Amino acid sequence: MTMQQRKNPQVPSAAASSTGDAPTGWFGRPSTARILPFAIYMAFVAVADLLQRFGWSADDLRWLYAVKIGAVLAALWAYRRSYSELGWRTMGGNVIVQSFVVGIVVLVLWVNLDAAWMLAGESAGFNPTDATGRIDWTLVAVRIAGAALVVPVMEELFWRSFLLRWLHDRQFLKVYPNQVGFVALAISSVLFGVEHNQWFAGVVAGLGYGLLYMRTGNLWAPILAHAVTNGLLGAWIVGTGAWTYW
Fold first, then answer.
1. Residues 90-101: pLDDT tens digits?
2. Which residues on adjacent β-strands are paired with residue 135?
3. Which of 98, 167, 196, 218 has its Cα between 20 and 30 A from that of 158?
4. Per the record, where are the segments of Polar residues compositional bias (predicted)?
């Protein structure tokens, strides 16, 4: 990290624009490193939907979540050297506070923005209870760990680090987060919302995480905010039994 980067976190790291992160075939492209883990995640979502159409119940497919998270984690690990924006850098107390605030605000909005028109349809969610109503804590632990530790990294690399900046300039690694315009922010946030059953809450969350990234210039900020949202949401779901929010 250069002295300029230490003073201004908005400056893209040298590693991001060096030949060390240059494309070496499709699988070696910086864009692929950020797209593929997300694509793997969505492929598992599609497989689960297909299996349900063939008669599998949501309960029958609960084991698939662990496999999905494992596959995403493997992809992230394989591409770990490509994520120059995740290189070690201090966030600072102010950025950490902002991240927690955004994460908590998104959580509060998420559990309240649930009117019928704000939903893409009914969701079976993820119910970790057995036939007697007893909670399977192994399923809960895997679900919360995946949602709070793996999903935020995977999604922020795709939605904010890649797509948000790519919509501004196809040479996205050269884009400073604070250079991104409103159009790119709006489009990426709407698409982020469409990914979720609670699409409206998803759009709001996308705006919050995107603005945080643009303001701080540090991808760890929206990752932390996203982790706070997902982690606390998991605790709220377990506490209330509102499994459809999963």
1. 789 999 999 999
2. 129
3. 98
4. 1-21
Q: What token pair was written down for 193?
A: 């919302």
Q: How far is CA 243 from CA 21, 99, 172, in A?
A: 41, 26, 38
Phi and psi dihedrals of 135, rounded to 5?
-80, 130
Cβ neighbour number for residue 203 with a 10 Å cutoff: 20
Cα distance between residue 182 and residue 175, in whole Å: 14
| Residue among 127, 110, 124, 125 at smallest CA distance from 199 | 110
pLDDT greater than 90 at residue 74? yes
Please enumerate in sequence order all residues whose Cβ is within 8 A of that of 196, keeping only pairs 6 or more positions apart, or say none.
Answer: 120, 202
* Every domain of the chain and the residues it spans: 3-245
CB 96 within 8 A of CB 89: no
Mean pLDDT of the chain: 89
Q: Do the Cβ atoms of 89 and 205 come closer than 8 Å?
A: no
Cα–Cα distance measured from residue 235 to residue 82, given in angstroms and rounded to the nearest whole number: 33
Q: Which two tokens stand for residue 132?
A: 């007697």
What is the pTM (predicted TM-score) of this model?
A: 0.88
Burial of 229 (0-12, 13-18, 19+ CB in 10 A): buried
Contact partners, residue 114, CB within 8 Å, separation at least 6? 198, 201
